[in-house]
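Q: Please design a sequence for this.
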């Protein structure tokens, strides 16, 4: 008996322990045989292009992520998809880091100044200053920053991103591309930020225009750069204003302006490491681009935030709950998706961007066994990063999830109580009855570290079937010794009751003959005692069964039979009875709520409560009260009953036909879904007994009323409808155009289908991604038919429209100007679009007619003229061009026959071996002489004298032939020799002796002599130098330096009217001698030319000459300070070039001769320099200005000028210079022509493409806004432009 007492205490403890194990909280799932629990198909995320969320049916950007369970493999298929209404960029990215390498970067961020033993200045030691032997403070700012940059680089990856690592101090440099900075970088000197910025910007020079350029500047202190600023201290009589020059801190904001401007769209991020200043912050693109950090952690946080703004494409972290299974499939893009196992992250980036066709990524994941019960995310926070306009944006994908149960099997050593092994499993409630997949039964033995353990007992005896989202725990007792297989029995005594007649005992249970005792025999010690109830319990007339009695206790949990058995290996249980009627049925209250839904299953359109605070008996069937409401209802539309839920004391379960009222307040919610769409008749009304949220409505209609869309049967019905019922898991529909009849109104034609509010053309009958309840609207567009082009104008019609005038020029006053009718055969006619005809009139026939009357003349100027005519529906009229057409002729003198230009053999003999090449860099390379080579020269005749010619010899082939052939040109590209033809017809050199010297250079660097320096003094009269605001400035140069434009200090006149400038001797090209020199520039009042009569002004070949404003006031264009560089880098000197359609004269080093110097633009002046040659290159102009005949000039105003046959608006700034490019004036943007085609500066109107984007400039002169750019509106011809004025394609 004593042994039985011990067993009772052990049994009580076991019962308590089992009760605790069974109390793990979770989500109740009374019925797991229906739909999946969780959100496998969450609603799409919708966004506007600016990254804000959208509620539009057809958003700018739509992101989806769904999951499908695969029962055979116990994993989930994830489909991630994204599409954009118009293309957004996922650009290539170039990141340049610019890191402070000044001496302070070797300090520690945690250093207390009192603890510093010594500062480390200079050298190559990048470690921290010594601090009182405290090893925790030995990481320098440099080490922290370089580690953080390396971590940022690793996190961003190199997929579509390139990097450069530059640094600055008193010097600048860069690290190897694959190694973000070296431990041996020299950490020394000052913080010279400006030179560092210029160096870093140079790294972007090779980028293509579609590259996103990012500059990240990390610095730990103020810049050392300064500039001189004039500070006014006050005012005194006679003296006037007085003040002083003061050095102020200078941040390179101006150097970054072009990089950050709209065309380049470069982005600058600043990170102040242990410091902050407004000047440093001002370098960033905005407050969102500036960060501060005080230590290692905050620096990593700052760089991580920058990473999120930089990264483009899709980033899909899988999260901690799941692992990737198999490969990743990409649809809709040629770019592959990549998986980083270390980060458990998928990335995708396509340089072609993302558009309306979209992209999708498909892959498989498995939930980890260690995941907790409840809702589990099947992914992390996936995002799409993209560039729209000039800004980067990041938006989130939806996140699918599944609710599931966890199984933990703990194997405990019976002798020690220690857990020797734990096994886990996890299963999601994916619909239907589920069971654990990995662990399906309790094994007989387990092997742990080579030791075999035998299973003694298990609680419960079998792996449970999960019905709730809880942690299921199975405790298994194991022993190193094989357990005894003693046979136990459990005897259930009905205690006055019996098992009913229809009850049949199931093996291993047996029932005695009087049906009063049920026995289970043949049990092992670890088998659990089952608590029989329900249909397995006995019954007793007049009594209610209340459980089983074990000794003095009620058995409430299962226990091992070996712990409860007596010495005979038996357990005796006795039925507990309570007299029937002792506890009357409880009355409960209930309320019924009705919820009506249209197509959105998340948000009801109407809710109402009925049967509020009604009563029912506990245990009564709920259907007895609400069955009449579980039918079709009407609320404006027809609503079908779908399902119900029952909530008692905060716990909600799904309603079934067996649901009963429970103790407490019962809330019954009934759900109804609208049934309006009819898939049978293709109608929006009528219904078809299928909820609309399981269907898709497709509508076809007409957009602009210029046509009809019908179903082909009812012509009065303008529009047609199709309804598609979705099958389970169906994600798309293909609308049919069969039966959709489209007819255009008279004078119009069908042009396209569009979808929703989008104006882009679409093809309706393709697969469209949908969900239940979606409505798709397709609109037919009709445009007016193009007018048919009329027949080309006839000869008779053109004779009435066109006259030709010949203008005579020359000294013979008897030769008059003449006018002629159109001569047959002298013109051609071609058709153009928009009912236009182009007539080209050739001058030859009219010059011939003139010569018949006045003798031989030659044509000057254009050989033909083009006229455009437009048909107005009745007749042709002039649309573009001038009538009468004018040609100019000139008397031809009887000159003797021109001598033939010299041939190659003649020139070769004349030149001999007079072309010399000398190496400038190696004295051991001897000079070499050549004869004239074929193909290395050109011969041109003098335009004034037929007996003179110029031979131009080009250096390239002679340099190539010199020495070992490894030399390059070190001097002039060409040399000229002037020839004249003698009476004998032979050509001779003007200077008798021909000598041509070309200079070459090789890779060898001559010994460098000791450098010498001297000072050059610059003086300005009537002005000041920009650099110091003074009239004198001295600069130091190395002796032998050849001065360039960059060496000349910038200056300005003492006022805007002092703009004419001359040098006493021109500095550019001057070779610095050891004694130095002085250069003086003098500013003079701008010359107006008003003191001369220019009625006979000869503007030579200049295309910008006389012009007249809208009031008839005349004047002339003047170009000042033009500088031209040819494409090969050469600066034209003392010669003439034809650039575009204009001939320009040049002084030296690329400076153009102003057009108001007509004496330089006569034919004689041009021929005196050997004529001109064609050239292409780049202008750098101080600018054009316009001088009226009275000496005044326009400034700070618009001027309407007529010249060169056309009239346009031009804008002149406050100093009178003509503007071009973008102009912001009176709250409007304008664009002024920038091309050098003789119309530079003219105002744009109408549509124009600028830097790859189309803009519309006002064509109406309403309220003085002619030429103003339209923005964020619809243009007069019906196109949308965004806030920046660019056409939204």
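A: Design:
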């Amino acid at each position: 008996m004593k042994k039985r007492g011990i067993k009772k205490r052990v049994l009580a403890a076991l019962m308590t322990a089992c009760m605790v194990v069974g109390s793990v909280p979770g989500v109740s799932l009374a019925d797991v045989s229906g739909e999946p629990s969780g959100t496998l198909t969450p609603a799409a995320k919708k966004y506007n292009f600016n990254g804000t969320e959208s509620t539009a049916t057809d958003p700018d950007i739509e992101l989806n992520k769904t999951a499908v369970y695969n029962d055979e493999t116990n994993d989930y298929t994830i489909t991630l998809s994204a599409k954009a209404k118009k293309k957004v960029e996922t650009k290539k990215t170039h990141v340049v880091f610019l890191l402070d390498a000044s001496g302070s970067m070797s300090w520690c961020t945690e250093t207390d100044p009192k603890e510093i033993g010594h500062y480390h200045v200079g050298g190559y030691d990048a470690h921290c200053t010594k601090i009182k032997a405290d090893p925790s403070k030995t990481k320098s700012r440099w080490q922290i920053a370089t580690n953080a940059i390396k971590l940022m680089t690793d996190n961003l990856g190199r997929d579509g991103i390139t990097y450069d690592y530059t640094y600055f101090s008193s010097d600048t440099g860069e690290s190897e591309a694959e190694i973000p900075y070296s431990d041996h970088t020299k950490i020394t000197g000052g913080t010279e930020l400006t030179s560092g910025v210029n160096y870093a910007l140079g790294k972007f020079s090779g980028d293509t225009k579609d590259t996103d350029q990012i500059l990240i500047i990390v610095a730990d202190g103020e810049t050392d750069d300064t500039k001189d600023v004039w500070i006014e201290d006050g005012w005194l009589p006679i003296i006037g204003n007085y003040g002083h020059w003061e050095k102020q801190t200078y941040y390179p904001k101006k150097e970054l302006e072009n990089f950050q401007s709209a065309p380049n769209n470069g982005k600058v991020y600043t990170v102040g490491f242990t410091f902050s200043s407004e000047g440093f912050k001002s370098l960033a693109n905005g407050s969102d681009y500036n960060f501060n950090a005080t230590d290692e952690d905050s620096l990593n946080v700052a760089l991580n935030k920058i990473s999120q703004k930089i990264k483009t494409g899709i980033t899909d972290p899988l999260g901690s709950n799941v692992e990737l299974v198999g490969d990743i499939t990409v649809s809709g893009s040629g770019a592959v998706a990549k998986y980083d196992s270390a980060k458990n992250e998928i990335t995708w980036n396509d340089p072609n961007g993302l558009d309306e066709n979209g992209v999708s990524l498909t892959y498989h994941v498995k939930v980890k066994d260690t995941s907790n019960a409840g809702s589990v995310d099947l992914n992390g926070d996936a995002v799409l990063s993209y560039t729209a306009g000039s800004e980067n944006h990041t938006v989130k994908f939806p996140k699918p999830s599944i609710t599931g149960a966890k199984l933990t099997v703990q194997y405990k050593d019976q002798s020690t109580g220690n857990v020797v092994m734990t096994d886990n499993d996890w299963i999601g409630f994916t619909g239907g009855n589920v069971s654990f997949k990995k662990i399906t039964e309790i094994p007989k033995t387990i092997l742990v570290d080579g030791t075999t353990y035998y299973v003694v007992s298990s609680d419960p005896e079998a792996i449970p079937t999960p019905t709730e989202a809880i942690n299921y725990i199975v405790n298994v007792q194991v022993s190193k010794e094989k357990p005894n297989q003693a046979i136990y029995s459990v005897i259930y005594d009905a205690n006055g009751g019996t098992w009913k007649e229809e009850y049949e005992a199931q093996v291993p249970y047996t029932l005695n003959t009087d049906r009063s005792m049920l026995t289970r025999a043949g049990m092992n010690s670890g088998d659990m005692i089952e608590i029989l109830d329900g249909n397995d319990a006995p019954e007793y007339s007049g009594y209610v069964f209340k459980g089983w009695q074990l000794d003095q206790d009620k058995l409430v949990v299962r226990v091992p039979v070996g712990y409860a058995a007596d010495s005979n290996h038996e357990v005796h249980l006795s039925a507990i009875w309570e007299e029937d009627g002792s506890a009357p049925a409880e009355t409960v209250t209930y309320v019924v709520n009705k919820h009506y839904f249209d197509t959105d299953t998340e948000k009801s359109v109407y809710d109402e409560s009925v049967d509020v605070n009604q009563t029912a008996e506990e245990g009564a069937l709920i259907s007895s009260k609400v069955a009449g409401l579980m039918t079709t209802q009407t609320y404006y539309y027809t609503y079908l009953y779908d399902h119900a839920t029952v909530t008692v004391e905060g716990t909600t379960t799904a309603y079934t036909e067996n649901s009963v009222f429970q103790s407490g307040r019962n809330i019954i919610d009934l759900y109804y879904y609208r049934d309006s769409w009819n898939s049978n008749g293709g109608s929006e009304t009528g219904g078809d007994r299928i909820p609309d949220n399981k269907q898709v409505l497709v509508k076809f209609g007409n957009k602009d009323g210029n046509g009809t869309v019908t179903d082909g049967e009812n012509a009065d019905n303008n529009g047609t409808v199709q309804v598609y019922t979705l099958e389970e898991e169906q994600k798309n529909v293909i609308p049919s155009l069969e039966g959709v009849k489209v007819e255009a109104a008279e004078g119009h034609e069908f042009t396209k289908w569009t979808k929703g509010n989008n104006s882009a053309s679409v093809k309706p009958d393709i697969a469209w991604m949908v969900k239940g309840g979606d409505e798709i609207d397709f609109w037919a567009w009709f445009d007016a038919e193009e007018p048919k082009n009329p027949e080309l104008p006839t000869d008779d019609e053109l004779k009435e429209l066109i006259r030709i005038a010949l203008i005579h020029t020359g000294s013979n006053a008897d030769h008059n100007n003449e006018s002629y009718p159109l001569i047959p055969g002298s013109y051609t006619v071609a058709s153009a679009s928009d009912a236009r005809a182009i007539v080209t009139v050739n001058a030859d026939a009219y010059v011939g007619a003139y010569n018949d009357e006045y003798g031989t003349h030659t044509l000057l100027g254009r050989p033909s003229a083009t006229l455009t005519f437009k048909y107005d529906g009745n007749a042709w009229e002039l649309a573009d061009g001038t009538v009468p057409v004018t040609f100019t002729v000139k008397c031809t003198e009887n000159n003797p026959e021109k001598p033939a230009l010299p041939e190659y053999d003649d020139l070769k003999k004349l030149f001999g071996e007079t072309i010399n090449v000398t190496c400038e860099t190696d004295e051991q390379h001897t000079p070499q002489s050549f004869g004239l080579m074929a193909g290395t020269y050109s011969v041109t005749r003098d335009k004034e004298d037929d007996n003179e010619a110029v031979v131009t010899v080009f250096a390239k082939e002679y340099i190539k032939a010199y020495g070992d052939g490894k030399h390059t040109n070190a001097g002039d590209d060409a040399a000229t020799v002037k020839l004249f033809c003698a009476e004998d017809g032979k050509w001779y050199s003007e200077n008798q002796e021909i000598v041509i010297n070309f200079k070459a250079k090789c890779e060898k660097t001559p010994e460098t002599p000791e450098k010498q320096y001297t000072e050059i003094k610059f003086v300005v009269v009537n002005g000041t130098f920009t650099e110091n605001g003074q009239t004198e400035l001295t600069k130091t140069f190395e002796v032998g330096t050849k001065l360039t434009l960059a060496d000349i200090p910038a200056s300005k006149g003492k006022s805007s009217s002092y703009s004419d400038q001359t040098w006493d001797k021109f500095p550019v090209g001057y070779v610095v001698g050891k004694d130095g020199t002085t250069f003086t520039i003098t500013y003079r009042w701008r010359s107006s030319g008003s003191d001369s009569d220019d009625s006979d002004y000869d503007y030579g070949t200049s295309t910008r000459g006389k012009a007249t404003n809208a009031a008839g006031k005349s004047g002339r264009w003047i170009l000042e300070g033009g500088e031209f560089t040819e494409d090969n880098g050469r600066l034209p000197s003392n010669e003439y070039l034809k650039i575009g359609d204009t001939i320009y004269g040049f002084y030296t080093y690329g400076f153009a001769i102003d057009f108001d110097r007509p004496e330089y633009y006569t034919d004689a002046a041009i021929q005196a320099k050997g004529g001109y040659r064609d050239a292409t290159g780049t202008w750098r102009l101080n600018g054009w200005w316009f001088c009226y005949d009275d000496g005044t000039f326009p400034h700070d105003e618009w001027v309407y000028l007529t010249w060169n046959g056309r009239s346009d608006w031009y804008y002149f700034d406050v100093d009178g210079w003509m503007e071009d490019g973008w102009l912001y004036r009176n709250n409007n943007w304008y664009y002024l022509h920038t091309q050098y085609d003789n119309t530079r500066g003219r105002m744009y109107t109408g549509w124009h493409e600028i830097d790859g984007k189309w803009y519309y400039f006002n064509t109406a002169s309403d309220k003085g806004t002619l030429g103003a750019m339209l923005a964020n509106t619809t243009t007069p011809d019906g196109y949308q432009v965004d806030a920046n004025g660019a056409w939204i394609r």
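Q: Thanks. Anything notable?
A: The radius of gyration is 47 Å. Confidence is low (pLDDT under 50) at residues 1-35, 110-135, 1086-1103.
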